Each structure stands twice: as structure tokens, then as C-alpha cells.
């Protein structure tokens, strides 16, 4: 079986290009799901304080018998903790809940531009990075205007920008800005929570390769250079989503899928989302 490639982040840290997402996995189901994903071969887990399942993610990694260093773990700062000292305390809680002494990647979950912003928050993440307790720091749901502000007002270029992206929301502007500044793009909801799987173009390409629509969509992300972490609580689907490294889409197929873009989100708009728990 072909192995999962890694992407080198702008500080030299390597991240597996395919991981496992845990949004909407209930805490009571998380340990079983993450253990199953690790058994399938996933070595990159994406969680967040907002998902309420960091504790169970940590338990699963410990119970798997894998060394901590074999699994790349990302978590995110919840909305409501953007003030500098709140962010530092929230990071301590995340580490405590996971039961780890370091995190591989820590992200600001949402920019919240309308309710105080993110610059002092980013300075807190820079301190965390400086302490060595996060191997890399980044942002999530940042539009180019938010990234520009960070680049102008702070020192550290984010290692990643995690944004919603899939064939119906190709995010060309954000991806181009990320690439220009050596920020890796992570694509959340890579199969649009299932919505793109009924698309006739994707189905036709999948039939041609004797693959499933989910595999073709994830393969499209991999070939464009996105980091992805599809979520599933179903072991067969975890396996299906993992086996995408032994076929290639042609340039024409890649372009056909990219042309499906209609700037349609399954999640909130980062410019206006201001939800605080
Ligand atoms: N930073 C952010 O703001 C943000 C926001 C959203 C998500 N994320 C991250 O991105 C990850 C992935 O996004 P997501 O969970 O929203 O959506 P997704 O991975 O695009 O889709 C997940 C949905 O598709 C189903 N599914 C998975 N594999 C499938 C397959 N092979 N065939 C058919 N259906 C399949 C799952 O159902 P079953 O579980 O029943 O299989 C689930 O309902 C999240 O888990 C989270 O880690 C980040």
C-alpha cells in the first residue's frame, strides 16, 4: 500500500497530508473512532476544544500503543479565549485534557474580526510556540484580509491556514495568498460533509477509475497540495478515505473538478461568524 506523503511546514515540521477529523464525533464515541482510525493507518488527528472530545482523543492515542511522536495532533483555541491571557490558559487546558506535554499544531479556530479580532491572540500563540510546547502554530478560517493584518503587525508567519474547501468552494484566492507566503492550506469539510458525492462529474470520474466519489474528491485535494482530514465514524469509510495514494487524476480531470466551484459554503462565513460559547 502506498504511504501517506508529508508536507513540510514553513518551520521545517512535517505534517502527514492525510489525517482524521473529529468534528461532530460525540465524546462517548471518540475513543473508539480514533483507535479505529489509528488502526487503519491514520497518523494525524484534527481536534479542537470546541468539539469537546480532546480528552478522548488523548486517551485513544495513549491506548493505541503508538509513541506520542508517531501521531501528529492538531487542536484549536476556542472562540471566547482570544484575550492574550485567556489564550495562554486555554492552551494549558487543551494540553491537560489531551494528557500531552506538547501539541504538534495549535490554531486560532476563528478570526472573529467583529468581536475583538486576533492580533493579541496571535501574540499569545507566538509565546506558546517560543516555549516549545507547540511544534507549530497557525490559523483557521482566515481570509486574506485577516492574514495580511497578521503579517503586517506580528513576527511569525502562520504555518497553516485551515479553511473550508471542496469542489464547490475551491478557495482560489485564499490558497494563492497562502502559497505566496509559504502558509500550508488545510481543507476542512473536504467532501463538503457528503454534499459533493452526488455530483455527476465526480461520479463519472470515479466510475472511470473504479473508485468512489469520496476517493476521487480526496485525491483531487491531495494532487492540488491541500492537507485533508475527512471525518467518519464508520470503519469502512475510514479505510476508503485512506486508500487514495495508488491512482492519479489526469490534469483534465483535475480541471473538471475545480470547475465545479460555485463559492458555496457548508459552514459559516469567517467575516461575519461571531459565535462565542
Ligand atoms: N476549522 C474549522 O472551522 C473546521 C470546521 C469543520 C470541520 N473541521 C475539521 O475538518 C474535519 C472534516 O470536516 P467535516 O467533518 O466537517 O466534513 P467531511 O469530512 O467533509 O464529511 C464528513 C461527513 O461525511 C461522511 N463521510 C465520510 N466519509 C465518507 C465516505 N467515504 N462516503 C460517504 N460519506 C462519508 C461522514 O459520515 P459518517 O461519519 O457517518 O461516515 C460525515 O457525515 C472535521 O472533522 C474537523 O476535524 C474544521
UniProtKB/TrEMBL annotation:
Its EC number is 1.1.1.346. The record marks 76 as: Lowers pKa of active site Tyr. The active site is at residue 51. InterPro entries: AKR (IPR020471), Aldo/ket_reductase_CS (IPR018170), NAD(P)_OxRdtase_dom_sf (IPR036812), NADP_OxRdtase_dom (IPR023210). The keyword NADP applies. PROSITE patterns: ALDOKETO_REDUCTASE_1, ALDOKETO_REDUCTASE_2. GO terms for molecular function: oxidoreductase activity, acting on the CH-OH group of donors, NAD or NADP as acceptor. Belongs to the aldo/keto reductase family. This is 2,5-diketo-D-gluconate reductase A. It comes from Streptosporangium saharense.
